[in-house]
TrEMBL record:
The keyword DNA-binding applies. GO terms for molecular function: DNA binding. It comes from Zhenpiania hominis. Keywords: DNA-binding. InterPro entries: Homeodomain-like_sf, HTH-type_Tx_Regulator, HTH_TetR, TetR_C_Firmicutes. This is TetR/AcrR family transcriptional regulator C-terminal domain-containing protein. Residues 26-45 bind DNA.
Amino acid sequence: MANHTKQLLAESLKELLTHKPVDKITVKEIVAGCGVNRQTFYYNFHDIYDLMEWILLEDARQIIGTDTVCKDWVEAMSKVFKYLQDNEDRTLNAFHSMSRASLRNCIKSVFYPIMETILDSQPNAGRLSSENRKFLLDVYVLLLTGIVIEWIEGGMRGDYMFELNRLKRVIDCTATHLIDEFSMTI
C-alpha cells in the first residue's frame, strides 16, 4: 500500500514537473493531483526533494532493471540518457531546482551498481582491498556523474552515445592497469 501511495505522489509530481520547476511546486499541489492528504505525503517523504530523489531512483531501477549485473553497461547507460532526453522538461526542471549535492548523490546511487559490476568483472579485481576498490569505484562513478551533469547543463543536445563510448574506452584502457597498480599497494 505504501508503495502504491508513493507511486501516486510520484505521478502527480511528474505531471507538475512538465509545467514548472520543483522549487515552484507545493505539497498542496502534489496531493491535490493524486487525491491524498498532506499527512500522507509527509508519512512517505520528508519533503518534495525527497520525493524527487525517490522518483529518480525508482525510474532508473525500472529503466536499467533490478539485475545489477549488466552485460552491456553502455546499453544500460544509454537507456538512462534516452529516458532523460525523452522527459526533457521534467529533467531540466528537476535539474535546475535540485541542489548539486542532491543531484550528484542521486546520479551516483543510480550508476554505482553498474560501475561495481564493471569493476568486479575485470581480471584481478578480487585482489583489491576494500578501500582501494571503493576508491576506484568512486573515481569511475564521479567520472560518469560529471559526464551526465555536463550533458544536462548543455541542454541535453550532445550525442550521449559518443560520450558513453568514449567513457567505455577510458574504462577499457585503464581499469586493468589501475586494478593491478592498486592491488600492489599496502
